[in-house]
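Researcher: Re-running this chain for the archive, since the previous output was lost when a drive failed. Same request as before.
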Amino acid sequence: MLQEPQHRVEDLQIALAKEADLDSVIDLLRRNELPVQGVPEHLKTFVVAKDGGKLVGCGGSEAHPHVALLRSFAVEAEYRNAGVGRRLVRELMDRLSAHGIREFYLLTLTAETFFRKRGFKTIDRDEVHPQLLSSEEFKGACPSTAVCMRLLMS
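Model: Regenerated structure tokens:
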């Protein structure tokens, strides 16, 4: 018998990150062994999931005209497999799409299957849009073994 998730994803609030969320976002990323370089500079593009006042998930981007690098998606362990990550990705991509962005990239060591289910395809790093190559993620914050993925929206 399948066990019900401990937390109801419908009860979480998903919103743009605020400056006051920065320390909690960085703490969550570090506990999930994700890079934090560039997070303060791009916090305005982050979305966060909160259960009451507790930050339980985050995801961000480095947005450019028509293209964005998705980065820093993390969910507290007890909230995983309840749809929090899916809601964060959808919210962030909807916000970016509303600004004309139709090309999304990411680097991952652990979430290839998760993003493949959302339509992302594995690509070679030489296929990455040139606007993203100056990102800390591509300059070394993510190891060279990270899988590079892309989603093109019509």
